[in-house]
Amino acid sequence: MEKRIGPYAGITGITTLGELVHCNNTFFEATKNIHKMLKGESGLKFMAGILVSSKTLSGGTNKYPNRYPPIARVPEICSLNMSHLLRTIHYNTDDASTIDEQVDHVMGLAPKNVDAIQLNIRWVSPVKLQRVKRKYPDLRVILQIGAGALTEVTEPEDIYVGSALRAYDGVVDDFLIDPSGGKGDPLDVWRAFACLADRDIPPSMRAGAAGGRNADNVRELKGLMRRYGAIVNMDAEGRLRTPRVGDEGDLLDLKEADRFIIACVELADEVFCEAVARTTN
Questions:
Q1: Which has the least CB within 10 A, 76, 121, 136, 243?
Q2: What CATH code is carried by the domain that includes residue 204?
Q3: pLDDT, tens digit, 9 for 90 and up, residues 216-245
Q4: What's the DSSP call for residue 241?
Q5: Which residues are within 8 A (CB) of 46 and not within 5 positions of it... i.e. 6 or more apart?
Q6: SS3 category, 145
């Protein structure tokens, strides 16, 4: 069943306004001819992922310096405002005990220009997220379920993501199965489906899957979407970057970004149109 909020196709690791404008233009052109119901407020969005850590938030440098922009640049990156754009801070910290206060700091960077925050934190306190949601009711909250988080909800013959997510009902809008964490490691698509198929997942949450995605393999998610019964959020990072040598390279490859965006839009439209056809026949 489709959720109230629309799905997104996203790129994480955008570090300049120029990169965002380029990717946004590609998305805009790619969506001109998609199904009309995939457009509008609850339609497909382009998720522009901007990486921020507790270290960069305080003015430091991350170990991936070409993926995390200097914190002073974040307001400029977020200044582009389009109805189909989901400007998203991807935030990680080594100390989640004050996550509500840290989110306040993040939101202070561009108070009117941040649409969503993805928390790359292992099972962050739902109580503290309730405080975040009360203060920022329009902020779309995405919970990353990474490799470490998955180990805590996996048994030899069962994956109980849903029971864990029930604690976040009403405060988390999307969850992302992402064991790669930006490293480009391939996603086990059928293990991801086992996670998404959990009937205990709150129906208000929209699901997503990431891990080693690029234009050449994003269509592997089609079977997952058809079995799940909805378009899942798509996100890519590691495989859209140039080779890294020391502190050099590891830049967003705009040609690969374009190819990924176009492939995601085509896949979402295809899955959606097939679903419409099944319901009308």
A1: 243
A2: 3.20.20.70
A3: 999 999 988 988 889 999 999 999 999 988
A4: B
A5: 8, 9, 10, 23, 24, 27, 84, 85, 86, 261
A6: strand
